[in-house]
Fold:
Amino acid sequence: MNQESTAPRVTERPPFDRSSSQDSLDELSMEDYWIELENIKKSSENKQDQEVVVVKEPDEGELEEEWLKEAGLSNLFGESVDDPQESMVFLSTLTRTQAAAVQKRVETVSQTLRKKNKQHHIPDVRDIFAQQTESKEKTPDGTESQSVRTNENKYEGKDDQASSLIVYNKELVNLASEDTPASETDINLEVSFAEQAVNQKENAKDKTQKNKGCDTSLPSFRLPKDKTGTTKIGDLASQDMKKVCYLALIELTALYDVLGIELKQHKAVKIKTKDSGLFGVPLATLLEQDQRKVPGTRIPLIFQKLISRIEEGGLETEGLLRIPGAAMRIKNLCQELEAKFYEGTFNWESVKQHDAASLLKLFIRELPQPLLSIEYLKAFQVVQNLPSKKQQLQALNLLVILLPEANRDTLKALLEFLQRVIDNKEENKMTVMNVAMVMAPNLFMYQLGLKANEQQELAKAAGTANIMLLLIKYHKLLWTIPKFIVNQVRKQNTENQRKDRKAMKKLLKKMAYDREKYEKQDKSTNDADVPQGVIRVQAPHLSKVSMAIQLTEELKASDVLARFLSQESSDVAQTLKKGEVSLYEIGGNIGERCLDDNTYMKDLYQLNPNAEWVIKSKPV
Structure:
């Protein structure tokens, strides 16, 4: 469209100043960004006023109070404070930096509530952390408090499940970096990101040259092999995933605190949106109406269809995503889609490839709340201010975990599609940099309407383009749940189970039950008739027979599936060959976890000896 009409405007962009942007983004590479921005502005000129989402900047104390709610710690205040036991268990599993982040917010909320004279029980922050410290000191696993003690001891646990878990205190962080140095391209998922940042700052004190992280090339980061298996988003049961999100928020906040970056969440307090249709409809509403058509749909049907239409035209098309469709044609197609899409009468042959690309970007821009969410959009933006690419990647990993499920699934589908476009860069001339420049304004449009001076606008453009670049480049890594967070969930589950058993024993004693009988059953019901070093694998939906498998150093989850396959009927074998089933770790110190094929079973068994091992279908 109209390169003539856009060219004069593009020359009015802010003057380029290399010192205020990423070194890797030069004036030529930013050209695509400004052209895309002008195309967006032009396409919006004749548009009717859109329904607005009002974004509220929280008042003093409200931000921290909301943060505690989002972190699952709201029962430290208000009516539910009478039963803070669950929060005490949660707090007992936090690292030093995580506990410091919580303590900081609790102090602010306490002060604010006292100022406002609210009729709440207002606990003293020292009491809260004293309780969790005492709780930790009394546990048989010997874990030391990481929040208030400076003289931290090694983990000396000999308890069954808890002994397999790692406590990530300062001493272990130092050991990880000094005694067993990882490759520069490795992402360490076993130690808290914030603890790593503290350690790096301490090690950098004597260094004269400060690393600003504005390297001109993107490293090829990789995840080191984990014998207990890599955990991806979607692998855990919902109750454990909820705990993961709580911990991810606390960890992200701790990381930002350590690095001196302010993390402010926003809330949409007044939303007037469409309750039906395609464009300008909330993702959750869109998925509800889509699931009535196609049960189990996780990504909006219109979004899937637009991507499919673009790919049907061939991803080799030069300028794909960059060259816009004609504005009037796009407007007419929108109206026609709204009227005919769900009826199945829309003529997709009339949609040209560049029109489909423009419609896809329009869909993203017109979401009532941004794809990266109102709550965390600013947190995504300030990722660019973190000192190193590795820390930027760590922050993005935590932010992806924190996104609402519908946003996360849709973002994943978008990034995978963008990668397929980039895979054809020799033909379509769209490198990862070009695609990032074109897509950044569409994902970060919520902030583009704010008034800013030229240098601020340039910095924002370069920053959002850099974040888009990282999201595309490392999308395969970003859907991984860090092992240290999974281990914290395991520890929480172990502590809760211990307290539940203690409560049950008291109840049984009161009811005059035979305690010995209960304790014998409690030891491990799933280990009955199973010799040491052997696991029993079940597949209740596929077979009536379970299989005993001897654990060896080299036995992997894929081997377990293969052995089961070799002894089953052809129908079951066919199902397994299609990759529709997986081996799951269920119970013990985890709710449920889908295992990747390269999980070493003996190592995982040692981490969770009371688990059951079940082969079942993957969720849709």
Q: What stands out?
A: Residues 383 and 392 are 6 Å apart (CA to CA). The longest strand covers residues 581-587. The chain has a mean pLDDT of 78.
